[in-house]
Design brief:
Layout (H helix, E strand, L loop, with lengths): L3 E7 L6 H4 E7 L7 E10 L2 H8 L12 E2 L3 E9 L11 E4 L9 E5 L3 E4 L4 H20 L7 E4 L7 H10 L3 E6 L2 H9 L4 E4 L5 H8 L4 E6 L3 H9 L1 E9 L18 H5 L5 E4 L9 H13 L14 H14 L7 E3 L2
Parallel strand pairs: 9-10, 9-12, 10-11, 12-13, 13-14
Antiparallel strand pairs: 1-2, 1-4, 3-5, 3-7, 3-15, 5-6, 6-8
């Protein structure tokens, strides 16, 4: 009898990830030439992406059913294929390539993996979300020391790292999040002004305290928060679109207002899309930066206080992230 491993497989398109996906047993094969076989220890959760994959609503990923799922995982190499150099069994590696995440074992080309010191959730977060944070703030946002930086979903996995990276650059950070606990959390990271969107109007606060002063505004929410960032962008400022959580239902809000050009032209400002998958050539430098900051104790990683175990836990973790109650990086333990 051949050995098997388990993975979450999307078997049908559905409104939710849980409704469309199932845990399946798959044959355990040897790595071919140029491949690694990796036993995953932790996987990172990307609930919005997972939901949109389940709905076949991710334009840049062509889905052919059935498909395995998940993007990011860290684990230990079990075996290497012919011609592989620089990797040996026992090495800890991270992948950030779909669909390498939601599975107990990953068999993929060596180019899909990056070596890390340990197969821990910290190194998973650094190599995935840490890289994304650096790319959004520094490459797309082109942040300069001492600028005013606004961040939505600031207490989330991505947001809490962007806040810290901006603080390290001497920036004045405006953090948008929901609730007292999250507000206290981002203040502890160095945020200078916290806007609790549950009790304050983001638009009113920015108009009163930061009119035309946002040099970099990184938004993963869309809707009225994006509008408020855009309205208060500084001359030569950059509004970075890194997601649209408010439009998760696939029905973006239709608004009637002056064209965006009128808000940008006279300020020389810009709106920039951040799609990390298009920036792979820049990942190595970003990894080197965030790895160094973490090892020197200048960058901290916070994980959501909910524990998720095994592939069964992935479904709960996706829903936890979508609930808006999570704080910090959400991961599942696959060991």
């Amino acid at each position: 009898m051949s050995e098997t491993y388990q993975a979450i497989q999307l078997q049908q398109f559905a409104e939710s990830f849980r409704a469309g996906a199932r845990i399946v047993d798959l044959d355990l094969n040897r790595p071919g030439p140029g491949e690694l076989r990796v036993r995953n220890h932790y996987c990172g959760i990307n609930g919005i992406f997972d939901t949109q994959i389940a709905r076949n609503a991710v334009d840049y990923v062509k889905i052919k059913l059935p498909t395995l799922t998940g993007v990011e995982a860290v684990g230990v190499i079990e075996s290497v294929g012919e011609g592989v150099e620089g990797f040996v069994p026992g090495d800890a590696v991270v992948t950030t390539r779909f669909p390498g995440g939601y599975r107990t074992l990953n068999l993929a080309p060596v180019s899909h993996f990056v070596k890390v010191p340990q197969a821990t959730r910290e190194w998973l977060t650094l190599a995935s979300t840490g890289v994304s944070a650096a790319m959004a703030l520094e490459h797309i946002g082109a942040v300069q020391d001492g600028e005013v930086v606004a961040v939505s979903a600031a207490a989330g996995g991505l947001g809490h790292l962007i806040v810290q990276l901006a603080v390290l650059r001497g920036c004045h950070v405006v953090a948008v999040c929901g609730g007292r606990e999250k507000g206290d959390f981002v203040r502890s990271l160095g945020a200078h002004r916290v806007i609790d969107y549950r009790s304050e109007s983001v638009a009113d606060v920015l108009a009163a305290e930061y009119p035309d002063k946002l040099d970099v505004a990184i938004d993963t929410v869309s809707g009225t928060i994006f509008d408020a960032f855009l309205d208060n962008v500084a001359p030569h400022g950059r509004v970075v679109v890194g997601g649209a959580a408010a439009d998760l239902e696939g029905k973006p809000e239709i608004v009637t207002q002056p064209r965006i050009a009128h808000k940008l032209y006279y300020k020389g400002a810009s709106v920039r899309g951040f799609m990390n998958g298009l920036l792979t050539d820049h990942w190595p430098a970003a990894r080197e930066k965030v790895f160094s900051l973490y090892e020197s104790g200048r960058l901290n990683i916070t994980f959501d206080d909910q524990e998720f175990l095994g592939l069964d836990g992935v479904f709960d973790a996706v829903e936890r992230l979508l609930s808006g109650h999570s704080m910090g990086k959400v991961v599942a333990d696959l060991r």
